[in-house]
Amino acid sequence: MSRVWVFGILAALVGCSSGAASKVEKVPEDLQRPRIVAPRVPDRHAYGDITKLRPGQWASYKEGDRAFTLAAVALAGDSMWIELVEEGDPRLVSARLVSPDGVVLKAFYGEIFKNGTRSTVEPQTLEQNGTPSGGGLRESSRETDQETVKVAGRELTAQRVSVRYEDLEGRLIREVTLWHKDVPPVYAGTEAGGLVRRTTATSTVELTGFGADAKPLLDLPR
Predict the structure, then answer these.
(1) How far apart are CA 85 and CA 91, in angstroms?
(2) Distance of CA 149 to CAs 86, 160, 212, Å?
(3) Are 197 and 149 in contact (CB under 8 A)?
(4) How many helices (H) and strands (E) does the chain have?
(5) pLDDT at 6
(6) Structure confidence at residue 23 as a pLDDT band (50, 70, 90)
(7) Is residue 2's pLDDT more than 60?
(8) Which of 87, 93, 100, 158 could be stapled to 180 by a disulfide with Cβ–Cβ 3.0 to 4.6 Å?
(9) pLDDT tens profile 54-76
(10) Residue 21 to residue 209: CA distance in whole angstroms
(11) Domain boundaries, the chain
């Protein structure tokens, strides 16, 4: 009796291991990606004039502990896809379709990890940009000069512009900017070229690299 009992148990175990429960199903690629909540973005482009850009142009900057890259990655009619990349792990990528008048028509968001993992790409909600333009400042004086700086091992002789502004209470505010003709104006631009450095009383934004070989980082939904 005991042998029959043991045989029955073994037979049952074999049956369980060979059934449908042991079948390994391939997980769809989309389900392998972490899903994220996309942050909101302003409905106005806060950076350079996209009509002055060519696809592929990019520039990287540092502001305090923040490192970021702006890249013009593709044309869509008379509008341009601009990617804003917050550097880190993961890299936070916001792709924005910007019209010639600076309106953000639509935007998508994704995250890219150093190990190659990518999140899903999610649409971003547009919100009204409430940032006031000008801030009530009046230019009181302007001086121009030249300054030589090194960016990514390259020496640039930049145009240096020092401007003093007066606010509504009569206080003077000084801003010093450097510009160079070879720098793409993706962050900001003038007739002297793209921004190399901007220094105010509270912050400094400084160019760390630039080029013309940018490709889209996000695979946007069709």
Answers:
(1) 7
(2) 24, 11, 20
(3) yes
(4) 2, 14
(5) 37
(6) low
(7) no
(8) 158
(9) 999 999 999 999 999 999 999 99
(10) 54
(11) 31-127, 138-211
Query: Closest by alpha carbon to 126, among 152, 158, 96, 155?
Result: 96
Q: Return left, alpha or beta for 193; rule: phi > 0 is left, psi -120 to 50 is alpha, else beta.
A: left
Q: Write down how long the chain is.
A: 222
Q: What is the per-residue pLDDT for 68?
A: 98
C-alpha dihedral sign at 148, 195, 184, 116:
positive
DSSP state of 51: G
Residue 185: the pLDDT is 98
The two beta strands, 91-98 and 172-180, are unpaired
**Which of 50, 56, 53, 55 minimizes the C-alpha distance to 213?**
56
DSSP E strands: which ranges in 104-203? 104-112, 122-123, 126-127, 138-151, 154-166, 172-180, 189-190, 193-199
Residue (of 32, 81, 39) closest to 217 by Cα position: 81
Cβ neighbours of 111 (radius 10 Å): 22
155 bridge partner residues = 150
Residues 6+ apart with CB under 8 A from 209: 59, 60, 151, 152
Q: Which residue has the tokens 């104006």?
A: 185
User: DSSP character for 190?
Assistant: E
